[in-house]
UniProtKB/TrEMBL annotation:
Organism listed in the record: Pandoraea thiooxydans
Every CusB-like beta-barrel domain range: 197-267
SUPFAM superfamilies attached to this UniProt entry: HlyD-like secretion proteins
Keyword field: Signal
GO molecular function: efflux transmembrane transporter activity
Pfam families on file: Beta-barrel_RND_2, BSH_RND, CzcB_C
Residue span, CzcB-like C-terminal circularly permuted SH3-like domain: 279-332
Protein name from the UniProt record: Efflux transporter periplasmic adaptor subunit
Signal recorded as keyword: yes
Signal peptide residue numbers: 1-21
Domain Multidrug resistance protein MdtA-like barrel-sandwich hybrid positions: 49-183
One GO CC term, this protein: efflux pump complex
PANTHER family for this protein: MULTIDRUG RESISTANCE PROTEIN MDTA, RESISTANCE-NODULATION-CELL DIVISION (RND) EFFLUX MEMBRANE FUSION PROTEIN-RELATED
Family: Belongs to the membrane fusion protein (MFP) (TC 8.A.1) family.
Length: 340
C-alpha cells in the first residue's frame, strides 16, 4: 500500500503543477519582420507656438493667466492701461458727430439751392458752390468716421486675447510693468500639434526615407505614451554649415499630447532591408546579475529558465538573437513562472 500512496502523491503533484502551468499566461515566440534602425537625438516642439507681443505702449493693469493655464481661442490674457486710447476714441467720436452735423447742414442747403435753381432764383454758380460744400462736408464726415474705426482698433490693442486654444508656456511680464511695442508678453503653444525635431548628420541623410515609419521615443513619458510613430517625415532643405547636419521634422499623433515642448526624445530611422527576427515582450525577460533569461513553458507544462541573448528593443518588444526557437511558449509573468 505504501508504494501506491507515493504514486498517488506524485500524481497529485504533477496534476497541480500542470494546472498551474496551464493557468500561466504565455506568448508564442514568432518570427516578425524587422529593420535595423539608426538613432538620432531629437527635441519636442509644438508646430503652433506663438510669442504674443505688445502692439502698443502702456502699463499692464491686469494679468488673467499664468504659466500652465489652458486657454480658449479669444480668451483675454492680459490688459494694458487704455485710458488714453479711450479719450482718443471719445474725441474721434465727437469730431465725427460734428462732421456729420456739418454734412447734414450742407445736404439741406444743397436741397434748398436746387429748389431755388429750378425756379431760376439762383445761378448755376450758386448751385455748384452748394454741391461742392456738401461733397466736402461728406468727405470730412467719412474721414472722421475712419478715425473712429482706427481709434476702436487702437483701443482693442490694449486687451490681449489668445489667437487660438492652447497652453500658456510662460508669462514674461509682471503686473504694473510697462509694455512697449514689439516687447514679448507671453508664450502660447498648442499641445495637440507636437512634433519631434531630429538632428541628422548629412552623412546619414541618404538613408532617411520620407515615407518610412519612424518611431519616436520620449523617455520621460509613462510607458503607455513613451513610444510614438511619426505621422510623416519632413526633411528640411538646408543644412547647418557649422555642424553639417540637417533637421528632420517628425509630426506626432494626438496621443502624444502628454509631451511638452523642449522634452528630450530619440528618433529611430529604419535603414536597410527588412529581415525576420524573434520577438518577446520586455516584461517576459528576467535579468539576474549577468544572466539574461526567459521562462520557457514546455507542452507538458514544465517551466524552465533559459538563458537568451538579446538584440535591439522595438517599443515594448525585444529581439531574441539566441536561446529560443520560433513556436516555443514564453511566460509573460516571470514572477509567477518562478513559483512553478
Amino acid at each position: 500500500m505504501h508504494w501506491r500512496q507515493v504514486l498517488l502523491l506524485l500524481l497529485l503533484v504533477l496534476i497541480a503543477s500542470y494546472v498551474r502551468a496551464a493557468t500561466l499566461a504565455t506568448v508564442t515566440v514568432k518570427a516578425q519582420p524587422l529593420r535595423d534602425e539608426w538613432i538620432a537625438d531629437a527635441v519636442i516642439e509644438s508646430t503652433r507656438q506663438t510669442v504674443v507681443s505688445a502692439q502698443t505702449s502702456g502699463r499692464i493693469t491686469a494679468l488673467y493667466v499664468k504659466a500652465g493655464d489652458q486657454v480658449a481661442a479669444g480668451q483675454r490674457l492680459l490688459s494694458i492701461d487704455q485710458r488714453t486710447a479711450d479719450e482718443q476714441l471719445a474725441a474721434s467720436r465727437a469730431q465725427f458727430a460734428a462732421a456729420s452735423a456739418e454734412r447734414d447742414v450742407a445736404a439741406r442747403d444743397l436741397a434748398r439751392t436746387r429748389t431755388l435753381f429750378d425756379k431760376q432764383y439762383v445761378s448755376q454758380a450758386a448751385l455748384d458752390r452748394a454741391q461742392a460744400r456738401y461733397r466736402a462736408a461728406a468727405e470730412a464726415a467719412s474721414a472722421r468716421q475712419a478715425e473712429v474705426r482706427a481709434a476702436l482698433v487702437q483701443a482693442g490693442l490694449h486687451n490681449i486675447a489668445a489667437p487660438y486654444a492652447g497652453t500658456v508656456a510662460s508669462v514674461d511680464v509682471e503686473l504694473g510693468a510697462t509694455a512697449m511695442p514689439g516687447a514679448p508678453l507671453l508664450t502660447l503653444y498648442s499641445p495637440h500639434t507636437l512634433r519631434a525635431v531630429a538632428t541628422v548628420p548629412q552623412s546619414q541623410l541618404t538613408g532617411v526615407q520620407s515615407d518610412a515609419a519612424v518611431r519616436v521615443e520620449i523617455p520621460d513619458l509613462p510607458a503607455g505614451a513613451r513610444w510614438q510613430t511619426a505621422t510623416s517625415v519632413e526633411i528640411l532643405p538646408v543644412a547647418d554649415p557649422l555642424s553639417h547636419s540637417v533637421q528632420v521634422r517628425l509630426p506626432l499623433p494626438a496621443a502624444a499630447n502628454q509631451a511638452r515642448p523642449g522634452m528630450f526624445a530619440r528618433a529611430y530611422f529604419p535603414v536597410g532591408q527588412a529581415r525576420l527576427g524573434l520577438m518577446v515582450p520586455l516584461t517576459a525577460v528576467v535579468r539576474r546579475t549577468e544572466v539574461t533569461a526567459v521562462y520557457v513553458v514546455a507542452p507538458g507544462g514544465q517551466v524552465t529558465l533559459r538563458q537568451v541573448r538579446l538584440g535591439e528593443v522595438h517599443g515594448d518588444q525585444v529581439e531574441i538573437l539566441a536561446g529560443i526557437a520560433a513556436g516555443e511558449q514564453v511566460a509573460l509573468d516571470p514572477t509567477a513562472a518562478a513559483r512553478q
